[in-house]
Amino acid sequence: MPEEIKGSEQPASSNAPEQPVKADVQVAPGKSGDVAEGKKAEDVKPAAPAVKPTADTVAKPSAPAAPGGPAAAQQPAKPTGPAPAKPAAPKPPEGPKPQPWDAPVVARLKAMYGSGLKEASTYAGQNYVVVDKTILSEVLRIFREDEQFDFCVDVTAVHYPKREEQFELVYILYSFARNERVRVKASFKDGEAVPSAVPFWPTANWLEREAFDMFGMKFEGHPDLRRILLPEDWTGHPLRKDYGILQQDTEWVKVHLGIESGQ
After folding, report:
1. Helices (H) and strands (E) in the chain, counts
2. Is 63 part of a structural domain of the chain?
3. What would the pLDDT profile of 122-143 be if each residue is shown by its tens digit?
4. Of 29, 39, 38, 40, whose CA–CA distance to 4 is shortest?
């Protein structure tokens, strides 16, 4: 078989269709059999030259795919050590603190009673004095008659069971003429008599009755000291801290309401 196949240029007959002119194709040695088996010359491609593999051309094995797909592979690995400690919470801002109250009435009380005036302070814009119980009635009279505090807003108490003088009595006074408020405080033992303020403010009548009803405070000189919120025969005083929140006079409930419990 010839090693070279050349296209022939023969004149076409009038009846035969024109044949396309094929370019000369060089057949590599040993490949002539492909042409002999009927393959077209243009389908035969020359063999690529042999290339010696190098370190750069050798394909490296790919890493195994991360579980969860490509998105999971992009996520950083979670640390396996202990979690970092949380920063300490910031300290809450400090609230208002009592400040000394400097006023003419304070100077007058200090001059008159000395250590009997235990404290004169302003807290959150509210003025108050703490006095010894022996001068309470005199101090109230001064605020009413000399300082024009003509309205007794409230008479109440705070119970401190662990103190020797368990009850701190609080008078809240108001001056219409001066548009001022002041608190007068004094401490008493349980069952100790307190001088009534009804001679200075008639409104103290019902306020002192409420302090008697809820705390058991006894006001000496009160015109009609009796309960005002609870029945007269009720046992106990609900606003004392030794009176349980669910406590009640079960005997009174049974007698007057005909039930075992009022809860």
Report:
1. 6, 10
2. no
3. 999 999 999 999 999 999 999 9
4. 29
Helix (H) or strand (E) holding 129: strand 126-131
Could you read off the pLDDT of 100-129 as tens digits, one per residue? 999 999 999 999 999 999 999 999 999 999
What single string gives the DSSP state of each residue in 102-113? --HHHHHHHHHH
Residues 247 and 208 in one domain: no
The residue behind tokens 């008078």 is 171
Q: What is the pLDDT of residue 69?
A: 54
Four-residue CA torsion sign, 120, 124, 125, 128: negative
Secondary structure (H, E, C), 209-233? HHHHHHHCCEEECCCCCCCCCCCCC
Which domain covers residue 239, as residue numbers?
A: 234-263
**184 is a domain residue:** yes
